[in-house]
Structures are given as C-alpha cells and as structure tokens.
C-alpha cells in the first residue's frame, strides 16, 4: 500500500491533472480515508504527502499566479 501511495503522489503535475480529472475527486476521498483510518504510520504519511501535493497542484490551477505590473505613459 505504501508504494502505491508514493507512486500516486509523484505524478501529480499539471498534465496529470488534465488526464486524471475524472478521478481526482475519488483519489482525494480515498487519500483522506486512508489518513483517517489506516493504522500504518508510513501509509498515513505517504497519504498526507500525496494530499499536500494534490492540494498544491489544484491551488495552482484554480488560482494562477498573478503578474502585477503597472504601466506608466509619459506624454
């Protein structure tokens, strides 16, 4: 189980979220369930890491970095 969770957390990038968009909610729920109910500390740790990485990727997609710039025009 630990290896599966680690391999799940590694490919979480922008392209993976596009491909896995149909199962992201199920993946999130499964990871949350493992964190709450599993007795193996390593498995819980890997699930937490995968959740954090998934959270970072989703926040990046939902809230893209804003580029603030101000243009000054002299006439």
TrEMBL record:
Domain RNA polymerase II assembly factor Rtp1 C-terminal: 23-56
Pfam families: RTP1_C2
Protein name: RNA polymerase II assembly factor Rtp1 C-terminal domain-containing protein
Source organism: Hucho hucho (huchen)
GO biological process: protein secretion
Domain of life per record: Eukaryota
InterPro entries: Rtp1_C2, TANGO6/Rtp1
């Amino acid at each position: 189980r630990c290896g599966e969770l680690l391999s799940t957390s590694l490919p979480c990038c922008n392209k993976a979220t596009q491909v896995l968009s149909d199962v992201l909610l199920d993946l999130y729920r499964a990871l949350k369930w493992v964190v709450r109910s599993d007795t193996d500390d390593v498995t819980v740790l890997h699930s937490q890491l995968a959740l954090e990485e998934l959270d970072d990727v989703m926040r990046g997609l939902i809230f893209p970095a804003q580029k603030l710039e101000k243009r000054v025009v002299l006439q």
